[in-house]
Amino acid sequence: xTCIEKLVKRYDCGEIRPVEWLDNLxxxxxxxxxKKASQSxxxxxxxxxxxxxxxxxxxxxxxxxxxxxxxxxxxxxxxxPVNTATTxxxxxxxxxxxxxxxxxxxxxxxxxxxxxxxxxxxxxxPVEAKHRxxxxxxxxxxxxxxxxxxxxxxxxxxxxxxxxxSRILTVAEKDLVWKFxxxxxRDKRALTKFLxxxxxxxxxxxxxxxxxxxxxxDIDVDxxxxxxxxxxxxxxxxxxxxxxxxxxxxxxxxxxLLQLVQALKFEHINDRGPTSYxxxxxxxxxxxxxxxxxxxxxxxxxxMVECEDKIVGKMYAKVAYHYFKALLEAPNxxxxxxxxxxxxxxxxxxxxxxxxxxxMKDPRAKKIDKLRAIIADPDNGLRAIPSLxxxxxxxxxxxxxxxxxxxxxxxxxxxxxxxxxCTDGIEYPIIFKTGDDLRQDQLVIQIITLMDKLLRKENLDxxxxxxxxxxxxxxxxxxxxxxxxSLAAVLNDHQNNVLSFFREHHPQTGENSIFGxxxxxxxxxxxxxxxxxxxxxxxxxxxxxxxxxxLSTEGHLFHVDFGFILGRDPKPFPPPMKLCKEMIEAxxxxxxxxYDKFRQYCYTAFTTLRRxxxxxxxxxxxxxxxxxxxxxIDPDRAVIxxxxxxxxxxxxxxxxxxxxxxxxxxxxxxxxxxxxxxHKWAQYWRx
Length: 687
Known about the structure:
Layout: H1 2-12, H2 20-40, E1 57-63, E2 82-88, H3 92-100, H4 119-122, H5 126-136, H6 142-145, H7 151-161, H8 171-179, H9 190-197, H10 203-212, H11 221-226, H12 235-245, H13 250-263, H14 280-291, H15 293-307, H16 313-328, H17 333-359, H18 364-376, E3 388-390, E4 393-401, E5 407-408, E6 416-422, E7 427-434, H19 439-457, E8 469-473, E9 476-480, E10 485-486, H20 487-493, H21 498-505, H22 519-538, E11 549-551, E12 557-559, H23 581-585, H24 593-611, H25 613-621, H26 629-632, H27 638-646, H28 652-668, H29 671-686
Antiparallel strand pairs: 1-2, 3-4, 4-6, 5-6, 6-7, 7-9, 8-9, 10-11, 11-12
């Protein structure tokens, strides 16, 4: 067939003299051969007719300068197209053969893969540009300022203002927002929508947009965070957002600090890197970190983790340098800098200790004995810790590690359980992990802490347990240890009865007791179950089994181990939330008033968090370039995955009905019960 196709090309080009009677026989036979070959072959073939020319062809192509493979991605090297003309003097047949044989283009000969920008995509469509200029008009006169929408248009504008941050506006919606931009200045929600309508390649529109910023009603913190996302790279817009963030107090700022450190990746980066003078966000964070030691502690460790990144590490090291420089100029700055250095030495000592313990071939019991002996040894530096703030929780000063209360968890990474003694006499147990990336857990716990605060603002305390997590490196970190037992262990020790566990620790008799336990314990259990059901659903937390659901004696149920989020799950057919029959039976069953109260807490929490969806979505938008594993898999859809969980397209009544269906689906799901049994047997044989 290959030979025949080449001869047919020559025939079409006139290189083979036509013979009518012979051509009819030949082409009929070629068709039979082609039909037979296509039937006998299991592979499909695609035939492409390429243009043929009777004269030399001059190709005008754009050659691109490939970016350096070692160049930092945050400041992508510009592509320099070079217009060159290459004369091809081949015959018509040669031209077709060369293309059909797939000879490599110079770009294909380059090693590796490089992203090449299609210049046709970047070029503005002159028709659309002309239409936009005519519709919007660059006038900035009284007619624009006094323009007011009629009731129908006002409803359309209100609908646009209610769109989630990830919603892309249509051309008509952008033109409508631009037309009534002066009217919308009184609506603080409209600023981000207006800025998304600006054509940032048009200097006139950019100038108008920047000039309108002082006219706008003060925006909320969640909208200010949205203006620090990757899509807004205008320096004036980002400075405006930082000025709005200055209104937030240190406690609120601490909730967003992780995202603000990530937002530094989207700042303008010059040849010298960002300095304290050319980035308002850098200057703002340094000023607040110097002013507040607790904020400065977390700021330092967030920077240290990013400094180990091969791509943006140098930029973050520059920021860390200016932070230390600013500390030295502040009161007690030298002491604070020495404290951060001592924290680093402590973390390095613990890291070396953890790695050495993990490499030992001894049984776990002997490893625990060796760990306690090492900690008790006065020469290793762990017993002679100078009083310094614990990096995980700088509100507590630690001065010692208790050897007798140190242990090793029975898991693959063998994390250390260490108990610090604080200067005020309080014991602070922690878990130190090496070989595991805690940045995803750190993000989830931060979001849970934020959601807890949002719910408390609405007078809804769901008794959540947002324990502290701090990544001190890409593969190491600290976690707060909360005394508790896994739900699997509770059920195993109490014949699948959670109420028996509560009666053991908080028995109570009388009219006020519920199933023979303290009513406060039952209330805590119901509230915490509801809170974590809603939150784990919204964050798409996967791999839920009874070993990573923990229960305290006070009734606090909480989740740990957030290795799968945003809908990822290693098990097939996961339920929307982890709600097994034993958890429902502990409330008195599906017909009990406690179960009705549980569902009501779920509905209230879901609707409350839906009203704050913009803030949560904007925080995730700032994390798209963070090295969080489950965001890194599909960064473009990370925000959308969370947004879909909120069901912002539904009214509040329909949203409650929707969540009611999720609860029923989770309770009645059969496959998770089978997987739980399989997991239980797997854990048994592993032990």
